[in-house]
Amino acid sequence: MAYWLMKSNPKFFSIHDLQRLGTEGWDGVRNYRARNFMRDDMQVGDKVRCSFITLAPSLLALLVS
Q1: Cα(50)–Cα(10) distance, rounded to whole angstroms?
Q2: Contact predicate 4/39, CB 8 Å
Q3: Looking at the DSSP assignment, which residues form a beta bridge with residue 64?
Q4: Which of 5, 37, 45, 48 has the greatest count of CB atoms below 10 A from its CB?
Q5: Other CB atoms within 10 A of residue 59 CB
Q6: pLDDT at residue 36, as a whole number
Q7: DSSP states along the chain
Q8: Contacts of 5 (CB under 8 A, 6+ apart)
């Protein structure tokens, strides 16, 4: 079993969308390595934590640094 961290912009897919739909395909992945991990390595039964980022990148950088 693997553990994965997924993130989404709430303008496009929010926690409320996830609660309403239950499951949904994850499209629009721009990073080819992330896409390949999702396609090739994710398995049924793996654990996933979803993060819905709403901060501007500059604010997030201030919080992390």
Answers
A1: 11
A2: no
A3: none
A4: 37
A5: 10
A6: 92
A7: --EEEEEE-TTTS-HHHHHHHS---------HHHHHHHHHT--TT-EEEEEE--S-HHHHHHHH-
A8: 48, 49, 51
- Angle among Cα 36, 42, 46 to the nearest 5 degrees reads 155
Tell me if 3 sits within 8 A of 45, measured CB to CB: no
What is the rounded CA–CA span in Å between residue 37 and residue 12?
Answer: 21
Distance CA 51, CA 15 (A): 9
The CA-atom distances, in angstroms, between 65 and each of 28, 52, 61, 62 are 28, 20, 6, 5
Closest by CA to 6, choosing from 33, 32, 34, 28, is: 34
